[in-house]
Amino acid sequence: MTQTWKLLSRGAAVGLLAATAALVPAGGPAAGRAAAPERNASVLDLIPADTRAAMLAQAPLVDAATGLKATVDRGGARGFAGLGLVDDHVTLWWKGALPADVRAAVATARRIAPVEVVAARYSRVELSAAATRLAPVTDRHDAVHRVRLRADGSGVEVAVEPGIAVPALPATGVPTAVVRTEELAPRSREDDAAPWSGGARIWAGAGCTSGFGVRDAGSTDTYVLSAGHCGDLGAQWTDGAGEPIGVQTHRNADHDTMLITTASPGGHLYVGGSHDNVRARVVGWTEVFPGQLLCQSGATSAWTIGRPVCNLRVEFHYDDREDLVEATQLDGEDSARGGDSGGPVYAVNADGTVLAAGTTTRSAGPGFGFQDFATARDDYGDIVPVTGVDTSTCRVSYVVTESWATGFAAAVTVYNDGPTRAGWNLGWTFGAGQVVQGHWGGTFTQSGSSVQVSNEAWNATLPAGGSVSFGFTADGPATAPTAFQLDGETCS
After folding, report:
1. Can you spell out the DSSP letters for 344-373?
2. What is the DSSP string of 386-411?
3. Spatial CA neighbour of 43 closest among 268, 274, 212, 278
């Protein structure tokens, strides 16, 4: 899918929170479902305008942060403390001098969106070591929910149940704060049919929600992704009306993920109420960062409010055995309900399509806990979402970063869900006489309205699940091309 964005200034600060997960026993969700939206509604129609604008404005920030994260991951721990979306820019917290590869990555990211580098007092490695020193106490104390690493590198937090005495904590060598918060509890549509869409009610003795149809990029294996706490290996899963979906063949209990094998995974999500057919097409997946705004479409929330729960701001990733992500529903709504477990967590695109971000695990009031899609990929190999309508293995984000009377500047990020590419070429056709003038990050050729961009020597490798960014200035209107081809394959 082609995304065209104008960078807006919106609030999305990095903070802290609490959350829970939910199962629904046989008997179904509580009564009181909301009125169904109109049949031709899009997910965009179901999200409040200010929330929708804030989410869409983050597209270039996510592109920039994704490139930075890839460089940090390749280089090892070093001085990295955290990475997040803060207001209208990306913030990288780092202890000490930036290595050469990170400096280069920051320079590239700044061509896509504003990037601020902030000195951190402690690195992520130092904070993780402090959390390890706390573990002998926190792991055996029922009132302690979690040890959190602050993304800004300022210290760690110990989340403790309200009203319970705080255990004596050992010295950690870094500032250690106690935060009182309710523990996130696990959360577990009504009659789907193959191909199985995300957001539907699924059953195996108890009710949960389907997350995403996924496929193994290296084989022909296909599955439905959901929450691991919903069922056990070998369980037979059905839809809400009892039609068989498949058998649970994979489970990671720590990460709360599971796979149900099926020959018919779908590439859409239910995003409206329980008994309407409002769906959104999945076109790929996204990394998630503190400050990012997401939605979730659990089956019980659909029954209760007739729309997705959005304005879920990512707060931080757990750095423990579970590796979950916490978020906060910024309007004070319940972030999830019993039976939402396993349901899709996603980012919304300007055309109403969505990107897989994870699956629901827990909630507590506005607190929300989910497993990100990147961790599910770590669990089960090179899985990628099944995409609606097409079977492309690439996605292009086209960001207009600046425009003026006679021209514009754009940044392009190519996401690869196919095999690693040793060299790449992206092509498109302009529709309004645009002419490329300057460029960075690729070798450009233009013949008439047709543009081809190939790799430079330094960015020739495009790994499976990875991305590459480049950009240009051009004369002409800032309208986006309608299609892109990566090595001859049309991208979504």
Report:
1. EEEEE-TTS-EEEEEEEEEEETTEEEEEEH
2. PPSS---SEEEEEEEEEE-SSEEEEE
3. 278
Q: Taking the domains of the chain in order of start, what are their residue ranges?
A: 15-390, 394-490
Please give the DSSP secondary-structure letter assigned to residue 467. E
The string of DSSP codes covering 179-209 is EE-PPPEEE------SSEEET-EEESSEEEE
Element (H or E) spanning 160, and its range?
A: strand 156-160
432: left (phi over 0), alpha (psi -120 to 50) or beta: alpha
Is the pLDDT confidence value at 35 over 70?
Answer: no
Burial of 433 (C-beta count, 10 Å sphere; 0-12/13-18/19+): exposed
Task: Look at residue 419 and give its three-state secondary structure.
Answer: coil
Nearest Cα residue to 15 out of 64, 80, 85, 98: 85
Specify whether the CB–CB gap between 43 and 280 falls below 8 A. yes
Query: Of 85, 149, 103, 84, which Cα lies nearest the Cα of 123?
Result: 149
Provide the token pair at 175. Answer: 């500032």
Of the options 2.50.20.10, 3.40.640.10, 3.40.190.10, 2.40.10.120, the CATH number for the domain spanning 15-390: 2.40.10.120
Which pair of structure tokens corresponds to residue 208?
């949960």
The tokens describing 427, both together, are 């092509």
**Phi, then psi, of 62 in degrees rounded to 5:** -65, -40
Round the CA-based radius of gyration of the chain to a whole number and report it: 22
Q: What is the mean pLDDT of the chain?
A: 86
The pairing of strands 489-490 and 484-486 is antiparallel
Identical fold for domains 15-390 and 394-490, yes or no, is no
The letter for the amino acid at 289 is F
Element spanning 329, H or E: strand 325-329
Kindly tell me the sign of the dihedral angle through the C-alpha atoms of 210, 212, 218, 219: positive
- Residues 57-116 pLDDT 10s: 999 999 999 999 999 999 887 999 999 999 999 999 999 999 999 999 999 999 999 999
Residue 92 near residue 71 (C-beta atoms within 8 A): no
What are the CA-CA distances from residue 423 to residues 63, 382, 412, 417, 486 (Å)? Answer: 20, 20, 17, 15, 11
Amino acid in the structure at residue 316? F
CATH number of the domain at 394-490, please?
2.60.40.290
Note whether 346 and 294 are within 8 A (CB).
Answer: yes
The answer to whether residues 353 and 283 touch, using CB atoms and an 8 Å cutoff, is: yes
pTM here is 0.80
**Beta 222-226 vs 257-261: how paired, if at all?**
antiparallel
**Residue 65: predicted pLDDT:** 96
Which is it for the CA torsion 330, 331, 334, 340, positive or negative?
negative
